[in-house]
C-alpha cells in the first residue's frame, strides 16, 4: 500500500479521539451516503418508469408503423405486401384503417378512435394481457363480427357484454356528402357490431374501438386503401434496423417509424427529467461533501507539526497533498459504499416486494417500477470521486504549504 494511504488511514482512525473533527467527518460521510443512496434510487425509478412505458406501448403499438408521407390513406397492393414480408426479420404485416368515428350504444353516444385490423390481428396476441372481460376475437364461428372496446368507451356508453341484443352502432360521415347534416341519417354510413371484449391499457388508449377491417373499410369507404401498415418483428431483430430496411424499400412516399420513434416525445421527456434530477442530486452530494472540506481543513491545522516532521524526514509537497486527498477519499468512499449498497438494497426490496404503492386504482402495476442499471451506479460513483477530488484539493494544498512554511 502506498505510504500516503497508510498515513491517511492512521489519521482517519486516530482522529476519532477528537470529538469535533470526528463529528464533522461523520456528518460528511452520512451526507455523501444519503445523497448517493437517493441518486441510485431516483435514477432507478426513472429507469423503471421508462421500462414500464415501453411495456405499455408494446401492448398496443406495433414494432414498426408505416404511414403515408402525405394524406391520410394510400393504396395497398399484394406485391407491396409481399415485398414488405420479404424483409429479413419481418414476422407479420397488419393492414390498418384508423380514424375518428361516432359510436352509439342504446341512448348514449360518444366520439371514438376506430381501428380496423385484418385477420393477422389474431396472431399478434398483443392485447392478451390487457383484456379485462370477454375475448379477443373479432369474428365468431358463425360469421358474427365483434368489436374490442376500451374500458373508457365501455364506461362512457355503459356497455354490457351480457346484453346480446343491443349492438354498438358505428357511424362515419359519407365522403360523397358535400354538407354534413347531423340530423339526417343519410349523412352517415353505419355498421353494427356486437361488443366482444373489454381491454384496458392506459388512459391514452381509452377511446379506442378495434373492429374487423372489412367492416371498417365499408364504413369509411376506403375501397382498397389503408391508413397504415403495422409490422411485427421476429424475436432477436432490432426494430430500428427493420424500420430502416423497410424505409429503404418503400422510398420517400412513406414514413416508417419504430415503436420508440412513435413515442419519442414521452421517452425524451423521461430522459430529460432523469438528467435534471441527476444533476440536482449531484449538487446535493456536493453540498454534503463540503463537510469533507471543513474536516480536512481542521485536520490540516491540527497536524501542522506532523507535516513539518514529515518534511524533515524527506517528504515532498506532493506526498503531503496525496495524504490529505487520500484522507478525503476515505471519508467519501466510506459514505459512497454505504450509499450505493443502501440504494441497491432499497431498489431490490421494491422490485421484490413492492413496498411503495403507486396509489392509483387504474394503474397497470401496483408498486412503483424500479430498474437497476449498472451505468447509473457507475455514474454515481464517478460523481462522488470527482466531488471528493474537488473538495479535498484545497485543504490538501494548504496543508502542504503550511508544513513547508513551518519547516522554513
From TrEMBL:
Compartments reported by the entry: Cell membrane
Pfam family, one: FtsX
Domain of life: Bacteria
Membrane protein topology class: Multi-pass membrane protein
InterPro entries linked: ABC3_permease_C, Lipoprotein-release_system, MacB_PCD
Protein name: Membrane protein
Domain ABC3 transporter permease C-terminal: 281-400
Keywords: Cell membrane, Membrane, Transmembrane, Transmembrane helix
Residue spans crossing the bilayer: 20-46, 275-301, 329-351, 377-396
Chain coiled-coil ranges: none
Family listed: Belongs to the ABC-4 integral membrane protein family. LolC/E subfamily.
Organism of origin: Dyadobacter beijingensis
MacB-like periplasmic core domain segment(s): 27-157
Cell division recorded as keyword: no
Main subcellular location: membrane
Extent of the signal sequence: none
Amino acid at each position: 500500500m502506498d505510504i500516503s494511504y497508510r498515513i491517511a488511514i492512521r489519521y482517519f482512525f486516530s482522529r476519532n479521539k477528537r470529538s469535533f473533527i470526528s463529528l464533522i467527518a461523520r456528518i460528511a460521510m452520512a451526507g455523501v451516503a444519503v445523497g448517493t443512496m437517493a441518486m441510485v434510487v431516483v435514477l432507478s425509478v426513472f429507469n423503471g418508469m421508462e421500462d414500464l412505458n415501453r411495456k405499455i406501448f408494446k401492448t398496443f403499438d406495433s414494432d414498426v408503423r408505416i404511414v403515408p408521407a402525405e394524406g391520410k390513406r394510400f393504396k395497398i397492393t399484394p406485391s407491396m405486401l409481399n415485398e414488405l414480408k420479404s424483409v429479413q426479420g419481418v414476422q407479420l404485416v397488419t393492414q390498418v384503417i384508423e380514424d375518428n368515428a361516432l359510436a352509439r350504444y342504446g341512448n348514449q353516444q360518444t366520439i371514438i378512435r376506430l381501428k380496423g385490423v385484418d385477420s393477422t390481428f389474431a396472431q399478434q396476441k398483443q392485447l392478451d394481457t390487457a383484456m379485462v372481460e370477454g375475448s379477443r376475437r373479432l369474428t365468431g364461428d358463425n360469421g358474427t363480427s365483434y368489436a374490442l372496446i376500451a374500458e373508457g368507451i365501455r364506461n362512457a356508453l355503459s356497455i354490457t357484454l351480457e346484453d346480446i341484443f343491443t349492438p354498438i352502432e358505428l357511424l362515419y360521415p359519407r365522403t360523397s356528402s358535400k354538407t354534413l347534416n347531423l340530423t339526417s341519417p343519410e349523412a352517415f354510413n353505419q355498421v353494427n357490431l356486437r361488443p366482444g371484449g373489454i381491454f384496458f391499457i392506459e388512459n391514452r388508449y381509452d377511446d379506442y374501438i378495434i373492429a374487423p377491417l372489412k367492416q371498417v373499410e365499408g364504413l369509411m369507404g376506403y375501397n382498397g386503401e389503408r391508413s397504415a401498415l403495422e409490422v411485427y418483428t421476429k424475436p432477436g431483430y432490432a426494430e430500428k434496423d427493420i424500420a430502416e430496411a423497410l424505409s429503404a424499400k418503400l422510398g420517400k412516399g412513406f414514413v416508417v417509424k419504430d415503436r420508440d420513434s412513435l413515442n419519442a416525445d414521452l421517452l425524451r421527456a423521461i430522459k430529460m427529467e432523469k438528467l435534471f434530477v441527476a444533476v440536482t442530486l449531484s449538487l446535493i452530494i456536493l453540498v454534503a461533501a463540503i463537510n469533507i472540506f471543513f474536516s480536512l481543513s481542521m485536520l490540516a491545522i491540527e497536524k501542522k507539526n506532523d507535516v513539518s516532521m514529515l518534511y524533515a524526514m524527506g517528504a515532498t509537497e506532493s506526498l503531503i497533498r496525496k495524504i490529505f486527498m487520500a484522507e478525503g477519499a476515505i471519508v467519501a468512499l466510506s459514505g459512497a459504499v454505504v450509499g450505493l449498497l443502501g440504494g441497491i438494497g432499497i431498489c431490490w426490496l421494491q422490485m421484490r416486494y413492492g413496498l411503495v404503492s403507486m396509489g392509483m386504482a387504474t394503474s397497470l402495476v401496483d408498486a412503483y417500477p424500479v430498474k437497476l442499471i449498472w451505468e447509473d451506479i457507475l455514474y454515481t460513483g464517478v460523481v462522488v470521486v470527482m466531488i471528493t477530488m474537488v473538495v479535498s484539493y484545497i485543504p490538501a494544498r494548504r496543508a502542504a504549504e503550511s508544513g513547508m512554511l513551518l519547516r522554513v
